Structures are given as C-alpha cells and as structure tokens.
Amino acid sequence: MAEDLLFIEPDEDLSAALSVYIRRQQFDVRTACVADAAEKSLSKQIPDIVLANPSLPDDDGTRLLLEFKSKHAEIPLILLTDPGNLESAMEAFGPKADDYLQKPVKSIALDISLQHARQHLRLARKFSRYARQLEDLHEANTLYHQLFDEVPCYISVQDRQFRLTATNRLFKRDFGNEVGDFCYKIYKHRDTPCPECPVAKTFADGKRHQAEEVVTSRYGRQYNVMTWTAPLMDEHGEISQVMEMATNITQVRRLQDHLTSLGLMLGSMSHGVKGMMTALDGGVYQLETGIRNGDSERIQNSYERIADTSSRIRKMVLDILYYAKSRGMQYQTTDAARLAKSLADAASEMAGKQGVAFHNEIDPDTGEFEVDPDWFYQAVLNFLENAVDACVMDPQKPQHRIDFTVVPEDAETVRLEIADNGIGMDEESRRKMFTLFFSSKGSKGTGLGMYIANHIIAQHGGAIEVDSVYGQGTRVKIRVPRNRTAAARAVDSLLSPHTDSEDGKKDSN
Amino acid sequence: MSKKIMVIDDDPAVVEYLTTLFQDNGYETCSAKDALEGIDVARQEKPDLITLDLEMPGEWGPRFYRKLTEDPALKNIPVVVISGLSGHQYAINKAVASISKPFDRDELLQVVKENIL
Predict the structure, then answer these.
(1) Where does residue A12 rank: exposed (0-12), middle (13-18), buried (19+ CB within 10 A)?
(2) Is B21 near chain A, with CB under 8 Å?
(3) Can you name the CATH fold of A328-505?
C-alpha cells in the first residue's frame, strides 16, 4: 500500500520536480504551497507522512506544523528547510520533527529519510495494532475469568494424577480452596482414584465424558452432581489437563423422588377415591329418592351414609396432606395417661358403632413422655382403627373385643398395647403392613395409614412389635422412650416424609 | 316374577347404593361382600345377573369369576364388572359389560336391562 504523503513547499518548481521523484518511491503525493492550502489538506485527510518546508509565504508554517504534530504525534514529519534555516528550524521543532533535510537536497538523503519515515510508520502501526490486541486479550481474559468464577457449576481443572490445578468460586465455597489436592479426596473423601472416572476417560481418548456422581462437601453434605469433562490441549495439541464441570442436581433428584412417590400414591389413591365417590353418589341417590317419596327412613339413612363417606374422604385427604407436605415434629412433654384417655374415648366410640366391645386399662401413673401430641395421637389412632376394621372383617367369631393398655414399661419407656380378636394377618400381610401403599382393606384402604403411623413412631424413637395370627387376632406393642435420644434427634433431621420411601419397608420385628 | 341381581362389593356403602337402586327399579337383590361369600350366595339365590367389584380383600373378582364359570349351574349368569381400577375392562374378558366407578345410573340400568337373562 502506498503511503499518503503531504508535501508542503512554497517553491512550485521544486515541489513539482520532487513530487515526481517521490511518487517513484511508491508514495501517493499531495502538494500544498501556501499555509492556507496546507491547512485545508491536513484537515481534509490526515496524511501518513508530512514532508514540509516551514517557511511559508502567507502564514507561520512553524505554528501550523507544530499544532499538527501536537495532535498527531505518531505521524512522521520531515522538515525540508531553505538554505541557512536548518538551525532555526531545529530550535523551533527540536525532537518534534522526525528528520531534517536542507536544500539543496540530495536524492540519497531524501530516500533514506523517506524510508525511515516509512519504517517508522509501519512499526507504529504494528505497535498500535498489538496494543489494541493486547487490550482485547486482557478484556477477554477478565471476561473468561469472571465466567469461570460465576458459572453456577463446580469447575475444576485436573492433571493426569487428578490433582486440582484450578477451581472456580463455587467449587471453593463448597469444597474448599484445595488447589494441589486430589479430586477424589476433595469430592469423595477417598484415598484412591474412583472407578469409572470420566476425567481418566477423557485423558485416555480425548473425548468428552459424562457421569452422575454423589459427592460430599467439606461440610459433610451430599450432593448429586452431573459432571461433564473436556480435554485441555497444550501448544503441541496434546492433552495436558482435563476440565471437569459438575452441576448440582440434588434439588432435581429430590423433586424427582418426591414426584415418583406422589405419582405412585395418586395411582393407588385414585382407586380409593373412585370408590368413595361411588359411595357418595349412593348417599345422594338415597337422599334424592327419599325426599321425592317422602321416605324419612331413607333420608335418615342417606344422611348417615353421606356423613360416613365424607369422614372417610376427610381422613384420606389428611393422609395425603401429611404425605405431600412435611410438617416438622413439635415435641412437648405430655402426660401419657391423659393422651391415652382421649384415644380410648375416640376408639370406644368407633368400636361401639360396629358392635365391638372396647376395654381399656390405662395406668394413671404412667407418667410423662416427650411426643408431638397431634401426630402421636393420629399414629396410635390408626392402630386402633385398624383393630376395629379387623374385627368388622372377621366373619368367624360371634363376639369381638379390643383391649387397649397403656402402662409404664420402665423408668425410660412407655408401652401402649392394642389387642384385638379380629381377622388377623397372615405372615405376608404382617411383613408388608408398614409398606407404602400396601393395604389389605380393598377399596377402603389407601395404604398410607400404617406407613405414616410407623413413620411417626420411628420419629419418636419408638419401636413397634406386631404379633398376628390369621383368623385369631392381632397384638400391637408400641414402646416409646420418655425422652428422645440424641440418636432419634439425629434420625429426625434425616427423615423427612419426602425422601425416605425405604423407611416404610422395614420389618417391624 | 321379577328378576334378581346379586351385588358383590367389599364397600357396604356401594352395596347399599346398588341394591337400593335396583330395588327402586323393580329388581330383587342379594349381595355379598367378597368372592368367597359370593359363590355361596349365588348358589343359594340363583341370581339373573351379577355386578362384580374387582379389588376386594381376600380373593379378587377375576378368581370369583373363574369359580363361577366352573359351576355348571352358575356359569351362564351374566356378569357386569363395576370397578374403580383402571384397565378393568381387560380383567374379565367374558364379562358382558365393564363400568367405571363412579358410574352413571341410567347407563348402568340400561346395561342391566339389556343383559339380564
């Protein structure tokens, strides 16, 4: 590319002659012979090089050139002075001019000077390009660093020994600032590399790999993470390190578990709900026809049917709510005998309606224990209800009875016992009785009651023992510590109704 | 003589609903709360049609149906399945009809009218 050179020279003949010469050296030349024209030329387009005689006829060329230089220091200025003016020019311009020539100018001196200017110009351009690139690079670097730190994932860079060479902020927050330590030690608290390590695979084949892992933070919390790995190459194109990016998906997994069991519950529940809706339809039908025919007996009957069905629906909804929403236990020191008395009253009424005899033996000196009265009441009531149902379902015996006993087992434990001579359970039903969604009650059961009851007793640190013989009856013993142990408190924090679907499958013996 | 319908369901509320509905429409009724009792009642009462729930404690509906068809005196009685289980229409494929709980009264009465012996 030819450089644009502005040649300012009052001597027009010299100007014309030199212009031809300079064009031959591959410059585009514009000329000006008065200050006015020079100024216009300069403002019209900034030249790449200025070759000028400061002694101009119409104005002070020195001032014009110095002004220009002060704005465009990077543009080379070569002064071509009239004979005898060199020294004064040097005094006026000093180092601000890049080169000085004096008329008559020799072509070799002009050549060298122009070449210098050209070199200077190219270097300056290169320099400013580099400077710009350096600035961009710095900006990008800052940006990438910010990204690295702010990405909502754990990012680590590892060498072939799985040693961490860089980690981002989130990683440091949850796993500590442990650059130099081993990945398997930090993530999994192991002493040896993990089997099936995606980082090792990426080192081996240079491809990206993916794995789902469970890692433990420096505070001992477990996280489900989805990890992706990618190779990092050195300047020879060899894999020098591997980057591992892990997304915390603990929340997603937890939700998934919850949704799975909710789906399972809705499936099992819909059958029960349909049965209850049919029963409710029946009540409404009786009410409708009873009113139409003025049959007061039928109206009375329909009322009982509707009331009964609505209480069944209420119970089911409450069970679902318990399961769907976790409510923390609110423990209170409670008088066991008083709680047992209100349970006995409720059970006695239920049993009476079904023609089942209800006996209770509550030791008034049973003492206090630490329970959540609402939930504990509900849990024991579930067992009492089951006892009544077991009696109703038994076709064999003419008389049915339930015995409810509450006594102090020892200084540390309260024992509640519920015995019935109902239908009893076979071995399989007994083993499955606390399983989520297991029910032996056909359309009347939701499979939640015993699961929840067992869950609540377990949260109280209690134990349930069940003896049952099919056709003979069932005896349930519930032992509850008066004071919850540290262990129970610890279990408490781990067990929430959302996450422990395994819990219900425990065998009670 | 009016026709007799036997209702088998473990939920007494549903039994009461169905028997009342059938009686109001001029049928005689009898009922059983499970499959075991159902066979005895069927032998005794010789119903002209049976409505059968599928999920009950003890033996389920399909097994009752097999027992029913093994008895030459009972095997020709039409059976209408009334159940809240999804997919109930496949449970007993020889049933004359399958109705979902909760059901439409007129639809049920129509099915009964068309199929009763």
Answers:
(1) exposed
(2) yes
(3) Heat Shock Protein 90 (3.30.565)
